[in-house]
C-alpha cells in the first residue's frame, strides 16, 4: 500500500499546476483532485478511480496526474469524453 500522505500531497500539488478542472470519481463521489482534504478521505476508501479532466491543458494534466497516481501504486482510469 502506498504511503497515503505522500500520495495525497503529490497528487494534489501535481493537479494544482494545471488550470483544467480535474475531478476524481470514486464510486458515487466526485472529488476535486486539487483538494488535499477531499483526496485524504477518498484515496483510503476506494480502490478504483476515474479521472475526468476538462480545460485548456487537459492532455498534459491527464498525463501528469495519472503518473502521480501510478507512482504511488494507485490505479486510475482517465475517462475520455
TrEMBL record:
What residue stretches are annotated with the HPr domain?
10-70
Q: Pfam families given for it?
A: PTS-HPr (PF00381)
The source's domain of life comes to: Bacteria
Segments forming a coiled coil: none
What InterPro entries does the database record attribute to this sequence?
Answer: HPr-like, HPr-like_sf
Write the protein's name: HPr family phosphocarrier protein
